[in-house]
Design a protein that fits this description.
Blueprint lengths: L15 H21 L9 H13 L8 E2 H11 L5 H12 L9 E4 L17 E4 L1 H7 L9 E3 L6 E3 L8 H5 L1 E4 L4 E4 L4 H13 L5 H4 L13 E3 L2 H9 L1 E7 L1 E7 L2 E8 L6 H13 L6 E6 L8 E5 L5 H11 L3 E7 L1 E4 L2 E4 L2 H42 L1 H10 L3 H12 L3 H9 L7 H26 L1 H18 L7 E3 L15 E7 L3 E6 L13 E2 L9 E8 L3 E6 L3 E6 L13 E2 L12 E7 L6 E7 L3 E6 L11 E2 L9 E8 L20 H4 L6 E6 L3 E6 L13 E2 L10 E7 L5 E6 L3 E6 L13 E2 L10 E7 L3 E7 L3 E6 L13 E2 L8 E8 L3 H9 L5
Helix pairs in contact: 2-3, 3-4, 7-17, 12-15, 12-16, 12-17, 13-14, 14-15, 16-17
């Protein structure tokens, strides 16, 4: 201890903090450079490179017999990789797994694990050899193409990098965690990489967008579907990105039940663990509608069967599976690799250029090596040719020499040969003196001189060097011509079941108790005015059809509830049923809250900003909001309108913006709510038309209802004359030539020109829309129609009738109309317009008219 502080002693005083920093830095660099990260040129970590080089040393090529894995691991550990045998064997196993490597570099025989997470058998039981691809990684390594460095004990030499004729880093990808950094490079299609490299050779200043016409994106060994190109573009441009992958599935029908079959899994997904995960979610009732899950996979491929319950919708279950399980995963791309002994994140173009530079270096070094060998051989052949040209003198000189040394010196002195040439002449057999052998030597020399000239040209010409790279790349592509297996979609939602569903017109019905269904509109035959209709739905005794409408299968339905919430659903996701089926509870399709009731359903094809959504409430309130505010709906819905106490939503309609809409916005101060009706004529544009159950209506300019926010209340549309009156319907009028169809509860209806209703100020008391009597009962709704449309009406008992619009008589504003539906003891609850049927259908149905 005394010597510790003695300045004259040999002991060094070291700060422990500095010592720890230095030691940890050395350890970090050892892990980064020597263990965890791949080289940017050959795409291999040291352990993988050493495994392949050891197998090459052992002669375990793709055509040789398999060797015990333990023998290979022993050679790797003993000669090159002084680490545990488990680490080496695990690396060898992964190189042989077709579900881990896009192009395996080890051909394994025996149990090398499975996609279910099963481990490989012990290395004493398995055997391995290189694949053809691995041989391409090692091709020309014996031609001084790469640098060799001492192994861990300086007893042998090992390659610093492999020559690699394939872009292995991108081809098979790589993953690893070093100290303070990590890499995660996805595998790619060899065909696409080669095409991209060839294009890059021809276009040095290529853009990423142009290059991605050839290299579409990652190509995972387990296939699957990549959703969205944004993550791929980010990764290729910056070296970092997030790629979403989904399992590939298809739907089968069996015994009136849907069966979801998983055909392909996201990369690195454990199949057995996925099945356990699904079973656990079903057990905890986090996913509804699944009856059974079983694994039917075999050597032909993956097949996981998810059998659904009878009333379950496959698309809804599938979406829940994607959301809650590893059937959907995210691959975080980090293209980090070692270059010049330093870790760096690369873009796609940088990695491709590095590979091309590496290939140029390899080819130049190989060319120099082959040139030196060719020149050495040509030198010998030139000596032999001189000897053959002077054979008698050469024989005499050798015969008269005392020994080999004297003969060598004599040949060098007399013919100007080198010692190598003189030795070759002395070693030449007498059989080479024949005419045929002389000719062979001359031909070989001539060929060698041509080869030397060719190799010289390659070294002098960049164009010839690139041509050689092109030829090798094309050769590789032809040898490993494997098509892409991972599907790529442009956008995350691009692949949808709607791509597989025909574009059809549907009648969608919803009952008072909340049962919804869709039925092809062609199933409802057209009947004569006054017909009794066909049964449209089977309902419970206390249930009745509350509303219905026609829509396309690809349309979006917006559901607005009594609580002012808005949800949406694609029409094709509504279960299709027969005319008499009661349908499916809508609460199973959208996430309604407790005691929440749907008050309006609005179909739309898009959420364009040029459209507005107008809401009308029972108390006569109107509100208008831009439709684009409702395009991103959460699963719990969004607030659509703030309602007063005791108020309810009656209807909501989509309106197109006027070209002149509120060009008078600056005139709003002058054009007040109490403006005279004469001034209203100056507003122009579309008009809103609202009716009450007591037969009153009001028509006012759309421009008088300005767009407001999503959660606003709205403004007054009409003031009621009678206390028990309420608003029951509303439409948008484009011009006064349009026809308004109004229908009462007892099936009485009429068509009236919109011009017969005078324009008023918003908030007025309105005018008479229909003359009501005991025979008509109350007004139930209005629609805008013309004779190119048909009318469909529903009654509270579930009957529906389809009527030609031209069979409904036109009548004045203050009249009742004609019988549209013969309801007897029933009542009409809803009306809608629908496309007219074809003439052929008209004729057939007129002949076979049925009055049920």
């Amino acid at each position: 201890m005394e010597n510790l502080f003695n300045k004259d002693s040999d002991t060094q005083i070291i700060d422990i903090e500095d010592s720890i920093k230095s030691s940890y830095l050395d350890y970090s660099m050892s892990v980064i450079i020597g263990r965890a990260l791949p080289d940017a040129r050959d795409g291999l970590k040291p352990v993988h490179r050493r495994i392949l080089y050891a197998m090459n040393d052992l002669g375990v090529g793709s055509r040789s017999a398999y060797k015990k894995s333990a023998r290979i691991v022993g050679d790797v550990i003993g000669k090159y990789h002084p680490h545990g045998d488990t680490a080496v064997y695990d690396a060898l196993v992964r190189m042989a797994q077709s579900f881990s490597m896009r192009y395996p570099s080890v051909d394994g025989q025996g149990n090398f694990g499975s996609i279910d997470g099963d481990g490989a058998a012990a290395m004493r039981y398995t055997e391995a050899r290189m694949t053809i691809l691995a041989e391409e990684l090692l091709r020309d390594i014996d031609k001084d193409t790469v640098d060799f460095v001492p192994n861990y004990d300086d007893s042998m030499q090992e390659p610093d990098v492999l020559p690699s004729r394939v872009p292995n880093l991108l081809l098979n990808g790589s993953s690893g965690i070093a100290v303070g950094m990590a890499t995660n490079i996805p595998p790619h299609s060899l065909n696409e990489l080669v095409d991209g490299l060839l294009h890059l050779l021809d276009n040095k200043e290529v853009s990423l967008e142009e290059l991605m016409q050839f290299i579409k994106g990652p190509d995972f060994p387990t296939a699957g579907i990549i959703y969205g190109k944004k993550g791929i573009i980010d990764a290729y441009r910056t070296g970092r990105g997030r790629v979403k992958i989904r399992a590939k599935t298809h739907i089968e029908k069996r015994a009136n039940k849907d069966i979801i079959v998983i055909d392909e899994l996201p990369y690195q997904t454990n199949k057995a663990r996925l099945i356990e995960q699904i079973a656990e979610l079903v057990k905890e009732k986090q996913i509804e509608g699944i009856a059974e899950v079983r694994d039917e996979s075999d050597r032909e491929g993956i097949r996981v069967v998810i059998e659904l319950k009878r009333d379950a919708m496959s698309e809804i279950v599938l979406n829940n599976l994607f959301k809650s399980t590893t059937m959907e995963s995210t691959f975080g791309v980090i293209m980090l690799a070692i270059h010049n002994k330093e870790p760096k994140i690369f873009s796609l173009i940088e990695l491709l250029n590095l590979f091309l530079t590496h290939r140029k270096t390899v080819i130049i070094r190989r060319t120099i090596y082959e040139l030196q060998k060719a020149r050495a051989r040509a030198h010998i052949l030139e000596g032999l040719k001189i000897a053959l040209d002077n054979i008698d003198e050469v024989i005499a000189l050798i015969k008269n020499s005392a020994d080999n040394n004297a003969a060598r010196e004599g040949l060098v002195a007399k013919f100007g040969l080198s010692e190598l040439q003189a030795n070759a002449i002395l070693d030449m057999k007498l059989g080479r003196l024949t005419g045929l052998e002389r000719e062979k030597i001359e031909n070989e020399l001539a060929d060698l001189l041509k080869e030397i000239a060719r190799l010289d040209e390659i070294l002098k010409s960049e164009a010839l060097l690139e041509d050689l790279i092109r030829e090798e790349l094309k050769e590789i592509r032809a040898k490993f011509d494997v098509p892409r297996i991972t599907q790529i979609e442009d956008d995350y939602d691009d692949i949808d079941v709607e791509d597989l569903i025909p574009n059809e017109n549907m009648v969608v019905t919803i009952t008072h108790r909340g049962y919804i269904k869709r039925v092809p509109s062609k199933q409802y035959e057209k009947q004569k005015r006054g017909g009794k209709g066909k049964l449209a739905v089977t309902t419970y005794d206390d249930d009745f059809i509350e509303s219905f409408f026609t829509a396309n299968t690809h349309d979006t339905l917006m559901f607005v509830t009594d609580k002012g919430q808005l949800y949406w659903l694609k029409v094709y996701k509504i279960p299709e049923g027969s005319r008499t089926a009661k349908g499916k509870a809508v609460v199973n399709l959208i996430n309604l809250q407790a005691e929440e009731k749907i008050m309006a359903i609005i179909p739309t094809t898009d959420f364009d900003e040029s459209k507005s959504l107008c809401f009308f409430t029972k108390n006569g309130i109107v509100k208008r909001t831009n439709l684009s505010e409702y395009q991103n709906i959460r699963s719990v819905g969004v607030r659509a309108i703030n309602l007063d106490e005791n108020d309810e939503l009656v209807t909501a309609i989509i309106v197109e913006r006027d070209l002149i809409e509120l060009s008078q916005a600056s005139q709003d101060e002058n054009l007040s709510e109490e403006a005279s009706e004469e001034n209203l004529e100056n507003v122009g544009g579309k008009m809103l038309f609202a009716v009450t159950k007591k037969g009153m209506c009001i028509k006012f300019p759309l421009a008088k209802v300005r767009e407001i926010g999503r959660v606003s209340r709205g403004v007054t549309a009409i003031k009621f004359k009678e206390k028990n009156d309420e608003l029951v319907g509303a439409v948008v009028i484009e011009n006064d030539e349009q026809e308004v169809l109004s229908v009462s509860a007892k099936g009485i209806g009429k068509r009236t020109n919109a011009g017969e209703y005078r324009l008023q100020s918003r908030g007025g008391k309105g005018v008479i829309c229909m003359k009501l009597t005991d025979k008509t009962k109350e007004l139930i709704s209005v629609v805008i129609v013309d004779e190119s449309m048909d009318l469909m009406a529903l009654t509270s008992s579930g009957k529906m009738i389809r009527v030609d619009m031209h069979s409904i008589r036109k009548a004045g504003r203050n009249t009742s109309g004609v019988i549209v539906v013969n309801v007897e003891n029933d009542e009409v609850v809803s009306i809608a317009k629908c496309p007219k049927q074809s003439e052929e259908e008209d004729i057939e149905e007129d002949v076979n008219l049925s009055l049920e």
